[in-house]
Amino acid sequence: MSQPSPSREQIFSRLFHATVKKYWKSRFKTTGILDAEGKAFLVSIDYPEQEFLDFIEDSTGIVEGALFWYRKAAEKGDISAQSGLGYLYTNELGVDQDYTQAMLWYRKAAEEGNISAQNGLGYLYAWTWRHPGLFPIRVLVSQGRRGGV
Question: What is the pLDDT of residue 43?
Answer without folding.
Answer: 93
